[in-house]
Design a protein that fits this description.
565 residues; OB fold (Dihydrolipoamide Acetyltransferase, E2P); inorganic pyrophosphatase (n-terminal core); 3 domains; five-stranded parallel beta sheet; 19 helices
């Protein structure tokens, strides 16, 4: 696939000022300038990411005082508190934040995590009734409820006050809830809009702690251990890792590294995680937590994150690991089938989107399959699992940068039973007979609104840096920019006219190269690029990330190729 290589521009004067004021390397100063840090104080705050200084007050949320007053009243009266989460990692980890905090306050909440296949996404009557039947007088939604008027009204009729913690959608009309904490809601009051469900749950816990302290409570439980859960939800939900999220994730990673939670210890062990990073969450921890909700019951993932018993944690971690292996197999089969269907049609051609459906696909993996199609073809993709008995499809959609898929689907709303989501991802329910119509309508809409350049994937380059200048000091500079994620991606460097000294295929799909630049040779690994044409003696331009490889107790500096030409 052709890609646009785009070299970021850094202001030399700004970079020099950052280097001098912050006593940092020229490379780090260049990277910060290229990412828009013109102000020394802002750059310093970014690098330090201090909990005590850089988290805004929970009380900035317009409805936070009302939410905290109601929860404090419930605690003082001994009223049952209910938590309604979601079945993905964000909803699970956010629910775990509240379970662990209320438990520390001496109140054991009741929890409902919806079953993906039986209930579907979001707040539903069945979950509301389940919490009411268990005696809940207050219901907190985590990662759902943002447009659930009917369900919130039902909760009120069943005697529950509702506190909504959601970040997906904003209702055009006010929700009939006691309090709403949604950072994208107009008038919400909180200036950072990027919090996920787990982040909102943490802010609710922090607000409650402030309220209890101000009303005379003492010896309140600390919030710091909960940051490990916030880091899980924030990374897994692919929200921007800047401002509050950067601080929460940075300190959350440290908590995971030294966690005392039996569930986290067991999860790290079964996942083979020895060094905790954003990548370790995204590729190892989160998929196992997601596996339960994708194939069966997400409640096991919540139980893992909240159990206080090591034996229970070990058992649940093994179960989730097994389910993740099953998920990987089901996913591979669905991806292979989707690719085969696209190629049988002659590839993407002039189309602006991909919409496919199958009765053989599991509804729990279609979101991952859609993401794989985006990676492979760089087109907004909708994958739909059709239930043959009801002739109804449950679909998941993923978009590409610069394309608001949710807005495009809104123009096709009459073809679907229901849909929801945000610009980069969405879900829907659809009659199987309408899938072909959706494919054509969506493509027409996207052809009208999609800029031509958006269909060519971009490789952002942070700086030109010769392999000859890469060192452990380079890695130390990059480490100061962690954690990486959306809006703060891991830096990518460009080196020109690099000589290929050796080439071999490893693992069937990867390239192992030795490259020489200005007299310095380094090993390079190019994942998934075994089919790329490159020969010994070729001179190539490369995009790469430096890294430390560990093998047999030896640490060796090498580079990971992101692209070459």
């Amino acid at each position: 696939m052709r890609r646009r290589w785009c070299l970021a521009e850094a202001d030399k004067d700004q970079a020099a000022r950052l280097e001098s004021d912050l006593h940092i390397s020229p490379l780090l100063a260049h990277l910060l300038s290229g990412r828009g840090f013109a102000d020394t104080a802002a750059a310093d705050a970014f690098l330090r990411a201090r909990l005590s200084e850089q988290l805004r007050s929970p009380m900035l949320f317009r409805d936070m005082p009302r939410a905290c007053e109601r929860l404090a009243k419930a605690l003082s009266r001994g009223e049952c508190i209910g938590v309604h989460g979601d079945y993905d990692v964000d909803g699970i980890s956010g629910s775990a934040v509240l379970v662990r905090y209320f438990r520390a306050l001496g109140q054991e909440p009741v929890v409902h995590i919806p079953h993906r296949m039986k209930e579907g996404y979001g707040l539903k009557d069945i979950g509301v009734r389940a919490l009411a039947e268990q005696g809940a007088k207050v219901m907190i939604t985590v990662d759902c409820g943002g447009v659930s008027h009917a369900e919130i009204e039902l909760a009120g009729r069943l005697g529950m006050d509702v506190i909504v913690c959601d970040h997906h959608q904003v209702s055009d009309t006010p929700l009939p809830a006691h309090a709403v904490l949604n950072p994208i809601e107009k008038g919400c009051g909180f200036p950072f809009t990027g919090l996920c469900g787990a982040g909102l749950a943490f802010y609710l816990a922090a607000g409650l702690r402030m309220h209890l302290r101000e009303t005379g409570a003492s010896q309140l439980p600390d919030l710091k251990s909960l940051l490990e859960l916030v880091a899980l939800g924030t990374i897994a939900d692919v929200v921007p890792v800047v401002e509050e999220n950067r601080v929460l994730v940075k300190h959350g990673l440290a908590q995971i590294e030294n966690s005392k939670s039996p569930g986290m210890i067991a999860l790290k062990a079964v996942s083979g995680v020895t060094r905790v990073s954003s990548g370790a969450i995204g590729f190892r921890l989160a998929p196992r937590l997601n596996a339960g909700g994708r194939l069966d019951d997400a409640r096991r993932s919540l139980d893992l994150l909240t159990t206080e018993d090591r034996a229970t944690a070990d058992r649940l971690a093994v179960v989730l690991d097994d389910e993740n292996k099953a998920r990987q197999r089901i996913e591979r089969e669905a991806v292979d089938e989707a690719v085969a269907e696209i190629e049988a049609r002659g590839g993407i051609g002039e189309r602006h989107s991909i919409v496919l459906a199958s009765e053989d696909w599991h509804p729990g993996v279609v979101g991952i399959v859609a993401a794989r199609m985006v990676d492979r073809y760089h087109r907004p993709s909708v994958m739909i699992a059709v239930d043959a008995q009801s002739a109804t499809g449950r679909g998941s959609a993923r978009s590409i940068p610069g394309v608001n898929l949710h807005a495009a689907l809104a123009e096709c709303e009459e073809l679907m039973i229901g849909f929801g989501g945000h610009p980069m991802a969405a879900g829907m329910t659809i009659d199987a007979s309408k899938v072909a119509d959706l494919a054509e309508r969506l493509d027409v809409v996207l052809a009208r609104v999609t800029p031509d350049e958006a269909l060519i994937p971009e490789r952002r380059i942070d700086a030109e840096l010769s392999l000859a200048d890469v060192s452990e000091a380079t890695l130390a500079d990059l480490e100061r920019m962690e954690p990486f994620g959306p809006s703060n991606p891991e830096p990518v460097f460009l080196d020109r006219e690099v000589r290929v000294r050796s080439r071999r295929v490893v693992g069937g799909t990867h390239l192992k190269l030795y490259l020489e630049s200005r007299g310095r040779s380094l090993a390079a690994i190019a994942f998934g690029m075994a089919d790329r044409e490159v020969a010994v003696g070729d001179s190539i331009d490369i995009l790469y990330r430096p890294r430390m490889s560990e093998w047999g107790g030896e640490r060796t500096l090498e580079v990971e190729l992101r692209d070459f030409r």
